[in-house]
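Table 4 source record.
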Amino acid sequence: MPEHREEIKKFIKEHSSLFWYIKEDAKERISLEFLVETILCFGNGNDIKRLFELLGTEKVAEIFYQQISRRRINYKLRTKHFFKLYFDRHVQRNIN
């Protein structure tokens, strides 16, 4: 389990209700991948903005693109489409 910076732990705690099925003592150790997916799927605009501030838009985009390249995707089609358009426009990617 990853050890997060204090500001990320605080962000997770502030959004604890989104992780209702995870034990309280385990919430601050969730993966960045899980955090990104949960906030992009269920967070509001302010939550997403804060996520970008904490991790950086490039890091969030990197995680997102890794997630949507898998066979099983947990994003709803509209959510996936929206963030694909957003990141394609706002984040420079190295395509090798």
